[in-house]
């Protein structure tokens, strides 16, 4: 199933992305299209890896200072069970 590209004006730039959820997108011009949190360059895989390593959700929320809402991280965890996320290369 091919998803529709959404185009939004973001300041002086046009932000193009494919929505994967309410908070998670794949934007071809951002992080090579790997899933990120909308309007950020924060990769979902990195956040999930960080949580899987035993770090707390509360600590992550504090570190991102409101840039990524709790609901976005919970959505990422929920979708991770249904979607094969591209993993970061190490």
Describe the structure.
It is built from 3 helices and 4 strands. The protein is globular. A 4-stranded antiparallel sheet has the order 1-2-3-4. It has helices at 44-52, 57-63, 70-80, and strands at residues 6-10, 13-19, 24-26, 36-37.
Features:
90 residues; four-stranded antiparallel beta sheet; single chain; alpha+beta; 3 helices; globular
Fold blueprint:
Elements: E1 6-10, E2 13-19, E3 24-26, E4 36-37, H1 44-52, H2 57-63, H3 70-80
Antiparallel strand pairs: 1-2, 2-3, 3-4
According to DSSP, the number of beta strands is 4
The overall average pLDDT, rounded, is: 86
Strand order of the largest sheet: 1-2-3-4
Major beta sheet, specifics? Answer: 4 strands, antiparallel
What coarse outline follows from CA principal-axis ratios? globular
* Radius of gyration, CA atoms, in whole angstroms: 13 Å
Briefly characterize the structure:
This protein has 90 residues and is an alpha+beta fold.
């Amino acid at each position: 199933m091919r998803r529709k590209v959404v185009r939004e004006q973001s300041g002086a730039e046009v932000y193009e992305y494919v929505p994967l959820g309410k908070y998670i997108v794949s934007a071809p011009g951002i992080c090579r299209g790997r899933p990120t949190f909308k309007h950020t360059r924060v990769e979902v895989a990195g956040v999930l890896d960080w949580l899987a390593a035993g770090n707390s959700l509360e600590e992550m929320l504090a570190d991102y200072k409101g840039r990524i809402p709790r609901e976005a991280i919970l959505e990422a965890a929920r979708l991770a069970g249904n979607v094969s996320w591209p993993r970061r290369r190490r």
